[in-house]
Input
Amino acid sequence: MQRLAYLKETPSQTAGPYVHIGLAPGAAGFDMYDQELGWDIAGPNAKGERIRVEGRVIDGTGSPVKDVLLEAWQANSEGRYAHPEGGGAVEDGFRGWGRVITDFATGEWGFDTIKPGLIPARVPLGAVRPAAEEEEVDAFSRGHQGLRAMAPHINLWIVARGINVGLNTRMYFSDEQEANATDPVINLIEWENRRKTLIAERTERDGSVVYRFDIRIQGEDETVFFDI
Amino acid sequence: MTTPAEYYQRNRDRHPPAYTPAYKTSVARSPRYSLISLQQSVSEITGPVFGHNDLGALDHDLIRNYAKDDDPIGERIIVHGRVLDENARAVPNTLVEIWQANSGGRYRHKKDTYLAPIDPNFGGCGRTITDEQGYYFFRTVKPGAYPWRNMVNNWRPAHIHFSIFGASFSQRLITQLYFEGDPLIPLCPIVQTIPDADAIDALTARLDMNATIPLDTIAYRFDIVLRGRRSTLFENRLEGN
Ligand SMILES: [Fe+3]
Output
């Protein structure tokens, strides 16, 4: 029998307890590099509403995970990613990628960025249906590939000791109810009571906008994680 | 409007499951519900782009990048290889980051209290960007094995942690490199979270005498494979697919 010539993906291993040394040495208090990566998600030129995102990662016992590393990947305020296939040019200094670690004592993490815009969903592969017909197909059956926009969201990836393969989730915004209601990914989640685990709560503190997003790895209100 | 194609579905049988009780920390840190599978959108097929401006000139040289008054103690090694995708195409210009214990098995981390000493000349992390052929290399010292709290007598085989980005957020990967011939590999509960012996073998770097620098530095070869991307057979061919 002939063999297919594809290679196989290298398997994942846990990031372990010392991930901070490798990926966020400056934030962890180690003097290693002149320039840390991932602190500048949205530079001063980035347009849009300035926000802060904060939260904790909670394990199956209800305890905060204090050695986690999170990465964020997001579009700009016009829904474009800083990538050749991201939908067009973005402002100088908008990178859309961030990396943070939790406070070793409290397990709290947070980052400053701008609120992303609506993100165009992709045109389906193959024939494109007329928009009117498309609207009749419910989001569940066509998944992501609809013509409507995705609601503003930040893609998150978390790694830590005890996590064998990094976990992907998405953070949506509580003040985007209308867009969230038609978002193809939120609607893909069959269990409506689990959808709320992806929605960050908007609050204000000292005149600044803060979104609170706790991620529950396991247990009551376990966060929805995606196989992307 | 053109439609960039998605990446191949991840073969989860090749990766460790989330819940692996012999690696005890995974028990409370593993989701109980199944992951929800997404067809990829622009959010998944894009990812951060890095350039040489992001890095320092010595970042890939762990023998030099933290040295104060001397070279670090230990066996001088080169770790090198290519980052490829499942279609065997090079993954160029992608960020590769590593971190590791020193030659005694001790990390430069306040939580690491192992008996082995800190090496004042060894930081233990490095990073580089692959070239157009997907090639990367690091110079470092071979890390030592170290004990860890799982069962009372568990030891990690010598290993280097690797973080790789690829061209999209869906290719993001963190893994560990092991060294050919290490008798601790089959005894390690973290290694053994991977159910497939062939997949464990893919994490085992090979002694590479051809890349060894005589009288100076011994070399190990470690190729990394990220997820491949589907070709859009029924549309105009895109980006060289
Ligand atoms: Fe380690």
In short: The longest helix of chain A spans residues 131-136. DSSP finds five helices and twelve strands in chain A.
